[in-house]
């Protein structure tokens, strides 16, 4: 364990909130309205009470009314709000990063990295606000022009998960704002504090940009608050990030009212390690991807499919690297492995290891629970939930490996033929991120080809986690098919119109159809 630096997390949280322009948490139950306790996974202690002030209904009403005006503001002017947000995030990066560490348990560098990701998408969004472009398309009719335009879509509901408590909001919200949409955010019930801080920064950004409209709003609450957004006919797009279980509930409900969904759900990411792999680089890539955020990233590496000729060597090196991992308070700058989010996460971690053992798996290293800071603290908190990341050698890919267990377990299986390795790689229900470690160009290209990885993200000589914002982010199969962030992901937040303009004095019909003229001919028309 690393040393602990967790004294007074509740006081520190309120101090950070104030510095970010937000109200501090309530120390005790308020007289009116609802309030929810916010908790830190670092020590298990209560940080304070979060007032629940706005309902989903009220937020959507305000967002729908703001949309009518916001959607008419020119896109480059909308970009000014995003520019201000980016500046505020730069100014407050360390405070917000620390709050992410306190509330989500990310180590210092990852907390700051999450805020940097927000800054990066703001930079991207400002440029995008001048580049929302449609195509012009050749028409078959003389004297005509055909083109596409992209128009604002409406109210966007953004439902987020605990493990990226602020960045995922920004990936969605920046694109939505630039697109001319208004946003209602329902963060995870496990991370309301960082959401309050981000909302305060977003309000300030709008003020600085001279926008007097509720273009972004925050609704705190549990699943029912998310469900209210999902079922609201006025919400044009539900962008939901979380478990596949959640996506399975959300998708049909939104489809039943012909709304749009953008789903970013669970992953079960793998790396294939080939005989030619640079093993030093591979070990570094694997350790970061498998134990970063204590294995609680959607892109965390969960399965290593290793050529039999290098498997023993690789596993030995991994065991040696795992043995040196500093586990403890994520607020200590030396820590590399912070806490699991809560006790339920530990139960799932331990159950998966039991199942793997029953399947013939051998736990090479880790798997134990270790004491963290806060045990026996004055407020009676049970302490944070800390474990040693595990590496498990499996005889084959079994059912437990096909499930996403949200914790630091790396299963290792071996292969002899690359085709078989790719088949094992793809033989899971999820399809988020993937990687291959090789110095053989043919192997790398085969992995990236249509008959290679079936994931939304496929990397070479990089682990599956740690994407940049410039690319489209998302995955296939049970990961939900959505794409967020860079590339042309902005199109999901807009509606496309196809326009045909006749600047001639004739009225030729498509497909050569004639209607009411002397020379009739058969044809189809749409
Ligand atoms: P979760 O599914 O428990 O909760 C996510 C959010 O959905 C929360 O805000 C929750 O209140 C809300 N929610 C739950 N059920 C709902 C319903 N029926 N209707 C509306 N809203 C509902 O997920 P979690 O435990 O917070 O996060 C971990 C999961 O998220 C993992 O599976 C992880 O892979 C996934 N995740 C995916 C991505 C991605 O980009 N693909 C990113 C981060 C996390």
UniProtKB/TrEMBL annotation:
Keywords: NAD, Oxidoreductase
Transmembrane residue ranges: none
Keyword Oxidoreductase: yes
Any Pfam family matching the protein: Aldedh
Cross-referenced PROSITE patterns: ALDEHYDE_DEHYDR_GLU
Name of the protein: aldehyde dehydrogenase (NAD(+))
Enzyme class: oxidoreductase
Aldehyde dehydrogenase domain ranges (all copies): 35-497
Active-site positions on this chain: 264
Lineage: Bacteria, Bacillati, Actinomycetota, Actinomycetes, Mycobacteriales
Entry-linked Gene3D superfamilies: Aldehyde Dehydrogenase, Chain A, domain 1 (3.40.605.10), Aldehyde Dehydrogenase, Chain A, domain 2 (3.40.309.10)
Subunit structure: Homotetramer.
Protein family: Belongs to the aldehyde dehydrogenase family.
Database matches in InterPro entries: Ald_DH/histidinol_DH, Ald_DH_C, Ald_DH_CS_GLU, Ald_DH_N, Aldehyde_DH_dom, ALDH7A1-like
Its EC number(s): 1.2.1.3
Source organism per UniProt: Rhodococcoides kroppenstedtii
